Amino acid sequence: MKRRKKNSFAARREEKTK
């Protein structure tokens, strides 16, 4: 469950960086 939450955070961070 913790891994899934981290994945969402990383995906959101990548969108902001792009």
Task: Give the CA-CA distance, first to last residue.
Answer: 26 Å
Overall 3D form: rod-shaped
Number of separate strands? 0
Number of DSSP helical runs: 1
How many whole angstroms does the radius of gyration measure? 8 Å
Q: In percent, how much strand structure appears in the residues?
A: under 5%
Which whole number gives the mean pLDDT?
70
Q: Fraction of residues in helices?
A: over 70%
Uncertain residue ranges: none
The SS-based structural class is mainly alpha
Question: What features would you highlight for this structure?
Answer:
18 residues, mainly alpha
Describe the structure.
This protein has 18 residues and is mainly α. It has one helix spanning 2-17. The longest helix has 16 residues, at 2-17. The protein is rod-shaped and about 25 Å long. The model has no long low-confidence stretch (mean pLDDT 70).
Describe what is shown at a glance.
Helix content is 89%, strand content 0%. It contains one helix and no strands.
Write the SSE topology.
Elements: H1 2-17
